[in-house]
Amino acid sequence: MVFAADQSNRGKVSEVFQLAPIVGLTVCRTRAFNDGQWRALQTFPSVYDENVFQALDFVVSEAKKNKIRVILSLVNNWSDYGGKQQYVKWGKDDGCNVTSDDDFFTDPTLRTYYKNHVKARLEMQTQ
Fold this sequence. Notes:
Layout: H1 10-19, E1 27-31, E2 42-44, E3 47-48, H2 50-65, E4 69-73, H3 83-93, H4 108-123
Parallel strand pairs: 1-4
Antiparallel strand pairs: 2-3
């Protein structure tokens, strides 16, 4: 998705999906998240970059054209591409009393941020 956000790289994304069935690939996993960082899909809770969102749509579309099933990862356990650490930062910025990245799993506000992100992915719409 981040790669496909650059229009000049989209041909490379298409090429990978065209070659994948030749080597037996039928399923791939890709990120459906990039939170609060460079080329972020979700710049703030429930706020999306339309260009990056369209890049994700492009990746899913190219996979479908080539009969590749896609598993969409919706968050990362580590700080790469934002992950739960970014949700905690957003919570702190919004005044939540969070002290650990693991508060991602229990804090009601952070859980709501994530649930809204999942809902937006399921509905494939931006705000």
